[in-house]
Amino acid sequence: MKPEVRRAAEILKRGGLVAFPTETVYGLGADASNAKAVARLYAVKGRPADHPVILHFASQEIAFYFSREIPQAARTLAERFWPGPLTLILKRSAKAADFVTGGQDSVGLRVPAHPVARELLQAFGGGVAAPSANKFGLVSPTTAAHVREDLGGEVDMVLEGGASEIGIESTIVDFSSAVPALLRPGFISKAEIEKILNLKIQDERQSAIRHPGGLERHYAPRTPVRLVATHALDKEISSSKAKLAVLAFSRPDERVDYWLRMPRDASGYAQRLYAALRELDSAGCEAILIEAPPEAPEWAAVRDRLSRACNR
Length: 312
Ligand code: TXA
Ligand code: MG
Fold this sequence. Notes:
single chain; alpha/beta; DHBP synthase; Rossmann fold; 2 domains; ten-stranded mixed sheet; 32% helix; globular; binds threonylcarbamoyladenylate; binds magnesium ion
C-alpha cells in the first residue's frame, strides 16, 4: 500500500478529514461512525446538518450492513455496477446514524471504483461519509488541485488521484420507498437501469425526498450562467454588452473574450465539464454562455448539471 494512503486511513481513524479521488468527482471523507468528524465535515463544506450524505465502502458486503432491507432490484444493480458510479438509497440499519442520514430513515451507499479510493476504503475498513469536496452549492472538484483551491487549509489531507474519469456525480437510485426513483441522473443512464431491472423507475422530480442535488441551484459557478440554443448563439454574442466567456461545440468566435470548445460526445463532455466551468468562472468575465447540448437521452446527466448551474 502507498504510504500516503496508509496515512490517510490513519487520519480518518483519528476523526480527521481526507479528500480523496473517485471516478466521478473528488469526495471529502470522514469516518461515518464518528459524530464529531462528520460535524466538522459539514462545517467545512458549509452544508446544512439535515442534509444526508453518501457513505462509501470497499465492498458491497460491508455497504449492505448499513441497510435493513435490500430489495432484489437493488442487489441486481449493486452486482452489476459496484464498484462504480452508482449510489443506492436504501432503508437504513442501526449502523447508519442520524448524523449521516440527516435524520431520515434511509441511507445513501456507494462502492467507488477509483483505485486510490478502493485502497483507502480497504485500509480504513468501515464506512466513509463523503460529499463532493467543494463548498455547498458550488462546482464539484474533479482534480486534487480543485480541492486545494476550494478547501485547501481546512482539510487534513488531500489524496492525489489524477483527473476523475467520469467527471460528474454518481447516478442515485432510491429504493427506500415503494417505487424505485432516479434521484440524480449520471453516467449510468436511466434507460440502462430500466433495461437491467426490466421495470420502470420514477423520475426524480416526482420524488419528495430531500436531497441537495435536488435543489434548483447547485453545481453553480459564481459568474452568471445562461444556456443558449445553437441557432441563437451568434445573435446572443453580437447583442451582448457584457464581457463574455463561452462554452461551445464550435470553433472560437473572435468577438468573445474567453472561449472553450467542448467534445461532441456526452461522456467526453461530462468528463471535462466541471474543470471547464471553473476555468470560465475564473476568466474575469461578466457572463458565461453555454451552448445547449443535444436533447438525446445520453445527454440527460449533462443537461441536468447545466440547468442547475444556470439557476440563481
Ligand atoms: O459521485 C458522487 O456521488 C460523489 C462522490 C464523492 O462519491 N458524492 C456526491 O455527494 O456527489 P454529495 O453529498 O455532493 O451528493 C450526494 C447526494 C445528495 O443529493 C444527497 O442528498 C443524496 O445524495 N443523498 C444521500 N443520502 C440520501 C438519502 N438517504 N436520501 C436521499 N438522498 C440522499
Ligand atoms: Mg455535491
